């Protein structure tokens, strides 16, 4: 291999690494609420965690999932920067932050709503950045 071939190969590898890093944006944003900054989905809706979730597994299925929709991960999404992707009981993918699956709350109607915080005897919490 010539020196120029090696340089070209290294340049391509570096370019791919930079492109991958740029495309791997976090699945959440940060929004302001009456309780301070919280993680939000792309629409600005507050995200929550559930105390009954354990070991990176969601305990919110069936009727629970209708009230607490999972923050869905797409097939081409990649974990990183404290975010992981878990597989739900129905086979769908869900984002987790620091090991805790993330959800929205069906009764929150606009960005900044935090009506799910403390729900179910304090088992639901706002997801903090």
TrEMBL record:
Alphabetical keyword list: Signal
Secretion signal, residue range per the UniProt entry: 1-24
Pfam family, one: Lipoprotein_15
Annotated PANTHER family: BLL4220 PROTEIN
Protein name: Lipoprotein with Yx(FWY)xxD motif
Organism: Bradyrhizobium campsiandrae
């Amino acid at each position: 291999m010539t020196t120029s071939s090696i340089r070209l190969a290294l340049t391509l590898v570096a370019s791919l690494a930079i492109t991958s890093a740029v495309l791997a944006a976090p699945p959440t944003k940060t929004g302001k609420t009456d309780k301070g900054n919280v993680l939000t989905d792309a629409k600005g809706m507050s995200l929550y965690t559930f105390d009954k979730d354990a070991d990176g597994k969601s305990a919110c299925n069936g009727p629970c999932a209708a009230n607490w929709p999972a923050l869905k991960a797409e097939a081409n999404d990649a974990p990183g920067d404290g975010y992981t992707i878990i597989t739900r009981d129905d086979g769908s993918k869900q984002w987790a932050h620091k090991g805790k699956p993330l959800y929205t709350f069906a009764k929150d109607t606009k960005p900044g709503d935090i009506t799910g915080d403390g729900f179910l005897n304090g088992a639901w919490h706002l997801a903090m950045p």
